[in-house]
Design a protein that fits this description.
By secondary structure, the protein is mostly helical. It has 31 helices and no strands. Helix 3 runs antiparallel to helix 4. It is globular, with a radius of gyration of 28 Å.
Length: about 575
């Protein structure tokens, strides 16, 4: 079937439109206050009011409100140990690390929260260059959730003291298979920063041979190669990654620097940057293994050490996006420096976030500013076109997609989406010949796209054209996406158009179990019931479809069917 309402939203997610991430306009490209940030919560006047508000904020995972209300509660009940623990943890999650350290100093080391308090103390010591103090705090932790991070940060503390050999020796104590990447990656970074060329090459090459699909592995290795004079090899490492994952902003920026003859700086040139990189990596692993907020602790501490760590800002923004706190996501992405390769990504994706917040004018304004600032940035152009399409500004969306198609040059298989999305804009604006051509081009680039197969075949079926060809395409699409109710509906609809009503009934009843709230699916099933003589059931489905708030053209069509049914039933519907 066509992609309508919720179907279009599902489509966008399924073909990889990235999660919304960033600041709202060109004016906020470095450190300005991001658009959409909500005002700070106002404490209540009573202890009970603050505590209750903190509990509610905690359930909603609203770290700012929870931290605010817990600190106010603690001010009124300073001896409450449980409140102290909660306020400390909430401060870490909210990124208030200095406040967290102040609260943590009051927490007993044997307390359940004590390990995090000691870990924060160690991070703070490392941040201020007190490397021996940092090592001492990390040594107090022993085994537990911070063991891996503490070991790697201890190695960086050794490096900060000028003891790179001790740092490498410590890292080589890591033997577990799941931690080998962390061991060799950070050993390579330390060796590179210290100037141990042979050791760095050995570590990075070993990592690259095992996993050439890791962005951090590729970037660290190629940066090292560029500084040893191996320019061609560095380029080949980047280009190999680009063939697998085209147009990654880090890779593109590095290639531009290489082409300009610029040496690439190391990922971590000092102990603070190395420790921040370690915390970021552990945070990613922790979030994957447990829950988003577990990773958020490490990412907040990474940013405490290195406020310019773009990937950590992205990770924080993604956590808040997943928690449905778009204002906090915008705030997080405002932290991405203007010089970062991710700045363009952040500016472009902010439009999607603002659009999701039902602020279409702000979304379009932000994206047009991003395109004006970086007219050669393909991602900004694509996102502007996507938002215009979401706003049903079909003709303008098609125009902007056309601009992007002109920028990509010779289309690659991964470029199928440009033609597919432009086809939607063309078809909705009434230009079917161009839409049909684009859908065919999308399928030429990606023959196994269930979305493109569905859109082209359904439209043919709806227009009464090439029905057998449409049937074959939709049967393939269902095999590729058997749990997509919209595509199953399309197959049922082509069976209906072919007069195969029993087959249509089977597929449409199955589709309805997957997307019961879709007006078009209910309408289609009503059509089949009518053809099979089950007219009372048909009227029920059409009425239900009408009540599901279909598109205006669909509503007219459904109401006409109900009028015809009323005539059939002698002027009164059953």
């Amino acid at each position: 079937m066509h992609i309508r309402n919720g179907g279009l939203k599902g489509l966008i997610l399924s073909i990889g439109v990235v999660s919304a991430v960033a600041v709202a306009s060109q004016a906020t490209m470095a450190r300005a206050a991001p658009v959409g940030v909500s005002p700070p919560p106002v404490p209540a006047e009573s202890f009970a009011g603050n505590y209750l508000a903190a509990r509610i904020a905690g359930r909603a995972k609203d770290t700012r409100a929870e931290s605010t209300f817990l600190r106010e509660s603690l001010r009124r009940a300073p001896g409450d140990v449980e409140l102290l623990r909660q306020a400390f943890t909430a401060s870490v999650l909210n990124g208030d690390i200095e406040e967290a350290a102040r609260l943590g100093s009051r927490i007993d080391a044997t307390d359940a929260t004590g390990a995090l308090a000691r870990f924060v103390d160690g991070v703070n010591a490392l941040r201020s260059g007190r490397f021996s103090d940092a090592r001492r705090e990390f040594a107090r932790l022993g085994s537990g959730r911070f063991e891996t991070a503490a070991l790697i940060l201890t190695a960086w503390a050794h490096y900060g003291e000028g003891a790179a050999d001790q740092a490498l020796e410590l890292l080589d104590r890591i033997k577990e298979d799941r931690l080998v990447w962390f061991r060799d990656y950070h050993a390579g970074l330390i060796a590179d920063a210290r100037g141990y060329t042979y050791e760095a090459r050995k570590r990075f090459r070993s990592l690259y041979q095992v996993d050439s699909r890791s962005l951090r592995t590729v970037d660290a290795y190629a940066r090292f190669l560029s500084r040893t004079g191996a320019w061609d090899e560095a380029r080949s490492v980047y280009l190999a990654f680009d063939r697998q994952f085209p147009r990654n902003p880090f890779i593109q920026a590095a290639l531009r620097d290489l082409d300009a003859g610029r040496l690439l700086s190391p990922i971590a040139a000092d102990a603070r940057a190395g420790a921040a990189e370690a915390l970021y990596g552990v945070g990613i692993a922790s979030a994957q293994q447990t829950d988003p907020q577990s990773g958020l602790i490490f990412h907040r501490l990474a940013l405490h050490l290195d406020p310019t760590h773009s990937l950590a800002w992205v990770a924080v923004g993604e956590v808040y996006t997943r928690l449905r706190q778009p204002e906090r996501a915008l705030e997080a992405y405002a932290g991405i420096p203007s010089a970062s390769p991710l700045r363009a990504v952040a500016d472009a994706q902010s439009g999607l976030l603002l659009q999701s917040m039902e602020r279409p004018a702000d979304a379009e304004k932000a994206l047009r500013a991003a395109v004006a600032a970086r007219p050669d940035d393909l991602r900004s152009v694509e996102t502007l076109a996507d938002v215009l399409r979401m706003q049903k500004n079909w003709a303008e969306a098609a125009r902007v997609y056309t601009k992007g198609v002109g920028m990509i040059g010779a289309p690659q298989p991964t470029d199928w989406r440009w033609f597919f999305m432009r086809a939607i804009a063309y078809e909705r604006s009434g230009d079917w010949p161009r839409a049909e051509a684009d859908l065919k081009q999308a399928l030429a680039l990606n023959p196994d796209s269930p979305q493109a197969l569905n859109y082209l075949a359904y439209t043919w079926a709806d227009r009464g054209e090439r029905l057998e060809e449409a049937r074959v395409m939709l049967e393939k699409a269902v095999r590729l996406a058997k749990n997509d109710g919209h595509i199953v509906d399309s197959l049922g609809w082509v069976y209906y158009r072919l007069g195969r009503y029993e087959d249509a009934l089977r597929e449409l009843e199955r589709a309805l179990t997957m997307v019961p709230g879709e007006a078009v699916v209910n309408e289609h099933l009503g059509d089949v019931y009518w053809r099979l003589g089950r007219k009372r059931e048909a009227v029920f489905k059409w009425r239900h479809a009408r009540d599901l708030k279909p598109e205006p053209d669909e509503l007219v069509r459904i109401e006409n069917k109900l009028l015809e049914a009323e005539t059939e039933f002698g002027g009164k519907l059953p």
